């Protein structure tokens, strides 16, 4: 059976030896190992994938590894090969959802899409054509609290592990952001320079930008400032119309988001303060 161990801890000698000895003593075979020593923060980050020939369970391994983790002050996660379940949130733009659905059905997303939730009905046909349940949760200023509680109820009902904001055009409350800390990913259009508000691609056209791009990041109470997982940038020039910039930008959004989701689901992303370590 396949497992993945991820951990972070203060730098010190003997960490890797302790991990490999633990696995060797249990007859495990390491199939992939990556580590990063952050000399600036004095921290070590590690991801190890391994197989066990015996009847080990993820709970057994977690309990046993707890002793090693305690000796080194580790924060760790151990997961088996079960694909995480996604709840995807959308509004009216379908390009990111369409890309996620395609990758899911092709088997390259590393996750199962369990449910699509939207504050509009526009993308119901796309979700249902792919065989994914679609739930309409309308949001108004007066019903925002009830809508967010409905979302939390759906997360529990469908046993989802990750919330993906695939161009969901509502700002989540600080309280909800904190409840979803580390398990919600958003995609944000980003330019050099950045443009906020309505019609960002038209603003970019008016300023004659040379690059457009997108940023996938974890959701935090600080709007669009969460730890960055992935960014995609495309070069453009004066010949691009606003419509063409929109097309390029949406391609960048879909690509950055799908990479971030896959890397998260493969346990390749570790939080490092306000940033991330991504083992590709």
Relevant terms:
280 residues, alpha/beta, 31% strand, 13 strands, 8 helices, one-carbon metabolism
Please compute the radius of gyration using only Cα atoms.
21 Å
Give the helices and strands as they follow along the chain.
Answer: EHEEHEEHEHEHEHEHEEHEE
Strand content: 25-35%
Number of strands: 13
Distance between the termini: 22 Å
Instruction: Determine the structural class based on helices, strands and strand pairing.
Output: alpha/beta
**SS summary, helix count:** 8
Are there runs of 5+ residues with pLDDT below 50, and where? none
Q: Major beta sheet, specifics?
A: 7 strands, mixed
- Name the strands of the widest sheet in spatial order: 7-6-5-8-9-10-11
For the residues shown, what is the average pLDDT? 95
Helix content range: 25-40%
Q: What would the principal axes of the Cα set say about the shape?
A: globular
Summarize the SSE layout with pairings:
Layout lengths: L1 E9 L4 H11 L2 E11 L4 E10 L5 H15 L2 E6 L4 E6 L4 H12 L5 E7 L5 H6 L4 E3 L7 H14 L4 E4 L8 H6 L4 E8 L8 H8 L3 E8 L9 E8 L6 H24 L3 E4 L2 E4 L2
Parallel strand pairs: 5-6, 5-8, 6-7, 8-9
Antiparallel strand pairs: 1-3, 1-4, 2-3, 9-10, 10-11, 12-13
Description:
With 280 residues, the protein is of the alpha/beta class. It is built from eight helices and 13 strands. It has a seven-stranded mixed sheet with strand order 7-6-5-8-9-10-11. Strands 2-3-1-4 form a four-stranded antiparallel sheet, with helices on one face. Strands 12-13 form a two-stranded antiparallel ribbon. Helix 6 links the parallel strand 8 and strand 9. The longest helix is centred in the last third of the chain and has 24 residues. It is globular. The two termini are 22 Å apart. The model has no long low-confidence stretch (mean pLDDT 95).
């Amino acid at each position: 059976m396949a497992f993945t161990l991820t951990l972070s801890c203060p730098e010190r000698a003997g960490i890797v030896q302790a991990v490999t000895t633990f696995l060797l003593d249990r007859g495990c075979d390491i199939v992939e190992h990556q580590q990063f020593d952050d000399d600036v923060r004095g921290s070590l980050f590690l991801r190890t994938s391994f197989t066990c020939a015996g009847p080990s369970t993820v709970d057994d391994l977690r309990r046993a590894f707890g002793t090693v983790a305690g000796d080194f002050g580790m924060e760790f996660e151990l997961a088996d090969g079960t694909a995480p379940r996604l709840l995807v949130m959308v509004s009216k733009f379908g390009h990111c959802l369409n890309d996620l659905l395609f990758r899911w059905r092709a088997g390259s997303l590393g996750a199962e899409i369990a449910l699509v939730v939207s504050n509009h009905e526009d993308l119901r046909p796309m979700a249902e054509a792919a065989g994914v349940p679609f739930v309409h949760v309308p949001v108004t200023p007066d019903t925002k609290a009830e809508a967010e509680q409905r979302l939390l109820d759906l997360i529990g009902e469908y046993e989802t592990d990750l919330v993906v904001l695939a161009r969901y055009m509502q700002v989540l409350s600080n309280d909800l952001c904190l409840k979803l800390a580390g398990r919600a990913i958003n995609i944000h259009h980003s330019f050099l320079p950045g443009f906020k508000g309505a019609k960002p691609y038209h603003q970019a056209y008016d300023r004659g930008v040379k690059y457009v791009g997108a940023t996938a990041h974890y959701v935090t109470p600080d709007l669009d400032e969460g730890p960055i997982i992935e960014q995609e940038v495309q070069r453009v020039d004066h010949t691009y119309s606003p419509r063409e910039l929109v097309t390029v930008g949406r391609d960048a959004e879909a690509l950055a988001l799908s990479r971030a989701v896959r890397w998260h689901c493969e346990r390749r992303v570790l939080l490092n303060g306000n940033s991330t370590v991504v083992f590709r």
